[in-house]
Amino acid sequence: MLIKRASFQAVMVAGILFVAIMSASVLAAPAANAQEQAKVFKTEFSLMDNLKMSVGQFVYVRLSSGDELGGEVKEVGINSVHLSELRGREFFDALVPIDRIVAIIKRARGG
CB neighbours (10 Å) of residue 37? Predict the structure, then answer.
């Protein structure tokens, strides 16, 4: 009977340790994910490279004329970026020359 009790206690301790380890990993994952999301841009990269990292995401681009266009980045080519579902013009897309883009504006935090 003493062996069964010791065996049961060992199983319980192992179960508690397993739950503690799993809880710690679950709690640590959102913190790592939040750090990745906090870094929206890579400043050492060009505008084109940052646009390439934003494919599938919604961004605003500020043009050298001062105008802003907002849309989902569909594709980034050598000379232009394809924005779809333009904000305020949902049925329109735009092909924007990269050399006319002076800034990329992207949501960094929830809200």
Answer: 12
**Cα separation, 109 vs 1, whole angstroms:** 58
Same-domain status, 52 and 27: no
Model pTM?
0.63
Distances, alpha carbon 33 to alpha carbons 27, 30, 36, 60, 73, in Å:
11, 5, 5, 23, 22
Query: Containing H/E element for 9?
Result: helix 2-38
Query: What order do you get walking across the sheet with 94-97 strand by strand?
Result: 94-97, 80-84, 68-76, 58-63, 101-105
* pLDDT tens-digit map of 31-83: 545 555 556 788 898 989 999 999 999 999 999 999 999 999 999 999 999 99
Q: Could you tell me the CATH number of the domain that includes residue 88? A: 2.30.30.100
Q: How far apart (Å, rounded) are the C-alpha atoms in residues 16 and 11?
A: 9
